[in-house]
Amino acid sequence: MLSDLVATLSSNPYFGAGAGLIGIGTALAVLRRSSQYGLIFFRRQFMITLEVPNNDISYTWLLQWISHQLRDSSRHFSARTTLVKNDEPSSRIQASYTFVPSVGTHYFRYKGKFVKVERTREQMINSGVPFESVQLTAFGQDRQIYIDMLEKARDAALLANEGKTLVYVPTINEWHLFGRPRRKRPLNSVILNKGVLEGLIKDVEHFLSNPQWYIDRGIPYRRGYLLHGPPGSGKTSAIMALAGHFDLSISTLNLSQGTMTDDRLQQLLSNVPEESIILLEDIDAATVGRHYEKEDNIRYQGMKPLTLSGLLNALDGVISAEGRIIFMTTNFIERLDPALIRPGRVDHKEYIGPLTSNQVERMLTRFYPQSTHNEINQFLTQIEQLTDNYSKQLSAAQLQGFFMHNKDSIKDVFANVNQLLCL
Ligand SMILES: Nc1ncnc2c1ncn2[C@@H]1O[C@H](COP(=O)(O)OP(=O)(O)OP(=O)(O)O)[C@@H](O)[C@H]1O
């Protein structure tokens, strides 16, 4: 019965052709599938891959190192432009360019092996910040090749950053390098009241060189500083100079901006880059005068903005083996909750106030090294009269601005001194 049916169908020319086509199609599909499995098997057995996402601290270093490896073999790069201004008041903003491998596939040879580089980028729907990663693939099974590359990339970055301060800023829940590394701010370029900067240096030095003291007493190895005082008095500048002096980077968060929530702050403070000072600017804005408004619902995507208890929890969670230094700044210490600045959270408070005559003198001689004794005295008298007449105080930022307007000659300083408090 069945053999009759088979004989009938096979003698039918239409059916025979169809079966042939189906057979070829099936064979091709099997071949394709098995070659895919074969490729996967081959990659798993004989190749080793490494993916580095852009939220990893080595991502930038690695990209730069790869672009160096590709300099002769690839012609497809992306440009990274950064505007750089060093801390000298008179310096101009300059653009600086670096080339990194473009999105796509590249190849280079490393220690006799071919390495495939695949750089990808995906647009994140919520944040607007693209997610990027770079994947390296090489023959072999020894992961040492990647450890080697990462270390080379880090060493090259450290060498390039010698004498510079790195500044990290957050994007969503991760930290990213902000602009190009800046030239270290020299300590003597920050002119504070006598002994203030020296006291801070001594305190940080003592903290960094005595981890055992904290371990022996079971105290979290961290130290909190609060610099408070009017705008433009040098709080941020002092912290930049300290970071440069101790060879630390700065991870900075402005709590008065953006969309900070308890969870986000907790997450950010728990993954601050190593050997970095945490700088929380305008700490008073974190919790003061916050009214939860309708539009906040959209801005914070349904999450509650930062609360005082969220801030305290996040600060208490900041622990690190090599010691964490947290600097907070505010123009309004009176607005801070006592819990925020109690010892353990803030161990060292410093008032950075308006200019004293000693500071004015040091700033004048820094800008006009040729100024005579008489000129210095004359200027100090004029400043005293001006501030008395207008019942105003003078900030270092104001004086710096005034000197920059009159940088060619000290004669201009005396001619225009009445404009000083207008700046
Ligand atoms: N004491 C100072 N010595 C030298 N330069 C200073 C001093 N204070 C301010 N400046 C200059 O003024 C500008 C602003 O200073 P800075 O940002 O450090 O002030 P701040 O106290 O942190 O201000 P704010 O409270 O508004 O954040 C910088 O260009 C800095 O170089």
Layout of helices and strands:
Layout: H1 2-11, H2 13-46, E1 47-53, H3 58-69, E2 77-84, E3 94-101, E4 104-110, E5 113-122, E6 131-139, H4 144-160, E7 164-165, E8 167-171, E9 174-177, E10 182-183, H5 196-208, H6 211-217, E11 222-228, H7 235-245, E12 249-254, H8 262-270, E13 276-281, H9 294-299, H10 308-316, E14 324-330, E15 348-351, H11 357-367, H12 373-390, H13 396-405, H14 410-416
Parallel strand pairs: 8-12, 11-14, 11-15, 12-13, 13-14
Antiparallel strand pairs: 1-6, 2-3, 4-5, 5-6, 7-10, 8-9
The protein binds adenosine-5'-triphosphate.
Would you write up a description of this structure?
The chain folds into three domains: 48-160, no CATH class; 182-351, 3-Layer(aba) Sandwich (Rossmann fold); 357-422. The chain has 14 helices and 15 strands. A seven-stranded mixed beta sheet has the order 9-8-12-13-14-11-15, with helices on both faces. 41% of the residues lie in helices and 22% in strands. The mean pLDDT is 83. A hairpin with a 2-residue loop joins strand 4 and strand 5 (113-122). It is of the alpha/beta class. It has helices at residues 2-11, 13-46, 58-69, 144-160, 196-208, 211-217, 235-245, 262-270, 294-299, 308-316, 357-367, 373-390, 396-405, 410-416, and strands at residues 47-53, 77-84, 94-101, 104-110, 113-122, 131-139, 164-165, 167-171, 174-177, 182-183, 222-228, 249-254, 276-281, 324-330, 348-351. The longest helix is centred in the first third of the chain and has 34 residues, at 13-46. Adenosine-5'-triphosphate (ATP) is lined by residues 190-192, 231-237, 329, 331, 396-397, 400. Its main location: mitochondrion. The chain crosses the membrane at residues 12-31. Residues 22-190 form the BCS1 N-terminal domain.
